[in-house]
Amino acid sequence: MDKRLYKSDTNKKILGVCGGIGEYFAIDPTLVRLAWVIFCFAGGSGVLAYIIAAVIIPERREIM
Length: 64
Description:
about 60 residues, mainly alpha
């Protein structure tokens, strides 16, 4: 099976980026969110990274 990174449909707080990363790596999305908060306080790089990821990571499309 081809593993792809998508924004999460079910585990999202803002845009589903952290939830999608957590699902991709099979870890708790809360840990990803915690890491994101730490990066935000470390010079604001987390905000920029989240915006870039929100633009780049596609949403999951269901094929009918």
